[in-house]
Amino acid sequence: MMISNLQQQRQVTEQLRREAAIKRINVSQAVLDIMKFISEHEQEDCLLVGFSSQKANPFREKSSCTLL
User: Fold this and answer.
1) Is 50 left (phi over 0), alpha (psi -120 to 50) or beta?
2) End-to-end CA distance of the chain, in Å?
C-alpha cells in the first residue's frame, strides 16, 4: 500500500524530532573519553599484549591436512 506524501512527511518529522532529542557532546570530550577507555583497557587488548597461548589466538593459521 502506498503511503501518502503527508504520511511520509509526518514520519520524517517524527524521526527528526527523535534525532534532535539525542544528547550530544563535543567531539573534544568524546575523544578524551575514547582515549581514557583505551588507556584503561590496553592490558586486555590481545592485539597489543599478545595471546596467552597459541590456542587462544583465533587468528592462528589452521593446521592443514596432507595426504600421503
Assistant:
1) left
2) 64
What's the pLDDT band for 58 if we cut at 50, 70, 90?
Answer: confident
Task: Determine the Cα–Cα distance for residues 20 and 17; give it in Å rounded to an integer.
Answer: 5
Which residue is it, cell 517524527? 14
29-43 as b/e: b if 16+ CB within 10 A: eeeeeeeeeeeeeee
Mean pLDDT of 17-42: 95
> Are 43 and 49 a contacting pair, CB within 8 Å?
yes
* Whether the predicted pLDDT of 17 surpasses 90: yes
Given a cut of 60, is residue 51 above it in pLDDT? yes
60 close to 54: Cβ distance less than 8 angstroms: yes
